[in-house]
From TrEMBL:
<feature type="transmembrane region" description="Helical">
    <location>
        <begin position="162"/>
        <end position="180"/>
    </location>
</feature>
<dbReference type="InterPro" id="IPR029468">
    <property type="entry name" value="O-ag_pol_Wzy"/>
</dbReference>
<keyword id="KW-0472">Membrane</keyword>
<keyword id="KW-1133">Transmembrane helix</keyword>
<feature type="transmembrane region" description="Helical">
    <location>
        <begin position="470"/>
        <end position="490"/>
    </location>
</feature>
<feature type="transmembrane region" description="Helical">
    <location>
        <begin position="412"/>
        <end position="434"/>
    </location>
</feature>
<dbReference type="Pfam" id="PF14296">
    <property type="entry name" value="O-ag_pol_Wzy"/>
</dbReference>
<feature type="transmembrane region" description="Helical">
    <location>
        <begin position="106"/>
        <end position="125"/>
    </location>
</feature>
<feature type="transmembrane region" description="Helical">
    <location>
        <begin position="12"/>
        <end position="31"/>
    </location>
</feature>
<keyword id="KW-0812">Transmembrane</keyword>
<feature type="transmembrane region" description="Helical">
    <location>
        <begin position="200"/>
        <end position="219"/>
    </location>
</feature>
<feature type="transmembrane region" description="Helical">
    <location>
        <begin position="441"/>
        <end position="458"/>
    </location>
</feature>
<feature type="transmembrane region" description="Helical">
    <location>
        <begin position="43"/>
        <end position="60"/>
    </location>
</feature>
<feature type="transmembrane region" description="Helical">
    <location>
        <begin position="67"/>
        <end position="86"/>
    </location>
</feature>
<feature type="transmembrane region" description="Helical">
    <location>
        <begin position="277"/>
        <end position="298"/>
    </location>
</feature>
<protein>
    <recommendedName>
        <fullName>O-antigen polysaccharide polymerase Wzy</fullName>
    </recommendedName>
</protein>
């Protein structure tokens, strides 16, 4: 039975009670109309701040268990509210201009969608507690004994490292080619041009990311992790030369989540991650934000890149928070969308998958979808980011710029408020699953680690891209192949040693 502490109940009642009262007051002001819309927006803004405080206070009480959702709370506020915060406190008199809203009623509606989605994510997360309570309790009481055991894990670990090293060669080749194109033609031109890569190189490179995820899923020790982690770190740093900042950030957040979950499996006296380390990571994060924003200024061709730390941090939050305009522009132009086809924007990742997968494309005669920003592509695509940018600013779109997308906007366009509620609830349920991820077998852990990267970025991403990214046919075949290979090696060794005891898998691992 789940016990609720009285102090937690009192805290949640007060903080969420204040939030609800502020939201009710904001909606009451909208009924009065006129100049009260501006006041309603102000009240709703503080309601969102109160909601964030309430959620953060609740998550920090069980920070190790709820760490994944705490990361999401951070990325959600940066990606969807960052520009709102900088505009609010810096240029409140220019809110409509800076946030690109047609009027205060549209701005109010946009902020309400952001608040509703965040509340539904957290509410679903809390409601899903009883479903995963047994596994979460096992982590708290049994620690490492709650981890799934399999005698093939050492073999799978070694095989995954071999694949990681082999696939790193074509993977880094493609990364180098992409970076070279960006240096030659500019960052924006990389979205309007395509570069040819030999098919064999492209296919081999696809195993690099899942091989590392499989390696982590086997829960290697510190010594076993050194070289694979070094190779993967080179990839993370090299991705910056392509001009894209989200890759290294999402990968870093996934690794942070993984190591916190690993640390949670240890008894309290043996844990490595403590308050001092958290402080060091915080300082490192601030420094990283500074240099990431410096990269953004360099790729944009800005002349003045010598700015103070405070100015750079504000600039970073403002630039990352530009995703809010996806929601604002969606509300501004909601009447321009065709209601009979808007649901296709929500499910575009599935359309992209069936068109580009060799099996489904051959069976149903689909043509491949090549995402290039030109007028021909935007007229036939259901990619919401492309469609919205072209609808609002065709010149910006054709020059390589774009607003991007967001699961909130896609869900709202497809099914209105109900769409936002259901998609947000799905996200909350999945984050609750992440809380006990390491108690599952290596395949589930692998899929979970790949999914974490998508979910921390989902405020600026497609609602269902994580499905096709995690459960694509190539990855599934890879998992099956590596398992069968480990099984074959283990059984082959057993046959050769029928007159002895079954060898220790650790010994087998050293002999591969």
């Amino acid at each position: 039975m789940i016990k609720v502490k009285s102090e937690d109940l009192l805290r949640d009642t007060i903080l969420f009670g204040i939030t609800i009262l502020l939201m009710l007051a904001a909606n009451f002001l909208t009924v009065l109309g006129g100049d009260f819309w501006k006041t309603a927006v102000d009240v709703l803004f503080f309601a969102i701040i109160s909601l964030n405080i309430a959620i953060a206070a609740s998550l920090i009480r069980n920070v190790r268990r709820d760490f994944a959702l705490l990361i999401f709370l951070l990325t959600y506020n940066v990606l969807l509210m960052g520009r709102v915060y900088t505009s609010w406190f810096g240029y409140h008199h220019k809110l409509l201009l800076l946030l690109e809203a047609d009027d205060f009623s549209k701005l109010f509606q946009s902020l309400q969608l952001v608040a509703l989605s965040l509340f539904c994510v957290y509410f679903a997360y809390r409601l899903a507690g009883p479903i995963f309570h047994k596994r979460e309790s096992a982590i708290e009481k049994l620690h490492t004994k709650a981890v799934y055991k399999d005698h093939l894990l050492p073999l799978i670990r070694r095989l995954s490292t071999i694949v990681l090293y082999i696939s790193s060669v074509p993977f880094f080749y493609i990364l180098f080619k992409t970076a070279l194109d960006v240096v030659r033609h500019g960052y924006l031109q990389s979205f309007t041009n395509t570069s040819d890569v030999p098919s064999i190189i492209s296919r081999l490179s696809m195993f690099f990311v899942p091989a590392f995820a499989v390696f982590l899923a086997t829960l290697p020790n510190k010594k076993q992790m050194k070289l694979p982690l070094a190779v993967y770190s080179v990839y993370m740093l090299a991705s910056l030369f392509t001009g894209r900042r989200n890759t290294i950030v999402c990968e870093a957040l996934m690794l942070t989540f993984y190591f916190v979950m690993r640390d949670s499996l240890l008894e309290k006296g043996k844990r490595v991650i403590k308050k001092r380390m958290v402080a060091y990571v915080g300082v490192f994060g601030i420094i990283a934000m500074y240099f990431l924003q410096m990269l953004a200024l360099v790729r944009s061709g800005a002349e003045d890149t010598h700015r103070g730390l405070g100015e750079m941090l504000v600039s970073f939050i403002d630039s990352q928070g530009a995703s809010f305009r996806v929601i604002v522009q969606t509300v501004n132009h909601i009447q321009s969308f065709n209601p009979s086809t808007t649901y296709l924007y929500l499910f575009y990742p599935f359309e992209l998958f069936v068109h580009n997968n060799v099996v489904t494309r051959t069976l149903f005669g689909f043509t491949p979808i090549i995402e290039v920003q030109n007028s021909e592509f935007v007229q036939t695509t259901h990619n919401f980011g492309h469609a919205l940018t072209y609808m609002v600013d065709p010149d910006r779109y054709l020059s390589g710029g774009g607003f991007g997308t967001s699961y909130v906007a896609e869900a709202y366009v497809a099914y209105g408020i109900l769409g936002v509620i259901f998609v947000s609830a799905m996200i909350g349920l999945i984050f609750r699953f992440f809380a006990s991820l390491l108690t599952h077998n290596w395949v589930v852990i692998t899929c979970g680690l790949l999914a974490v990267k998508s979910f921390v970025y989902i405020p600026r991403n497609f609602a269902f891209l994580w499905v096709t990214d995690v459960f694509n046919i190539t990855y599934i075949c890879f998992y099956a192949a590596i398992y069968l290979a480990a099984l074959f090696i283990a059984k082959g060794t057993h046959v050769r040693r029928t007159h002895r005891d079954v060898p220790d898998p650790l010994v087998l691992e050293e002999r591969i």
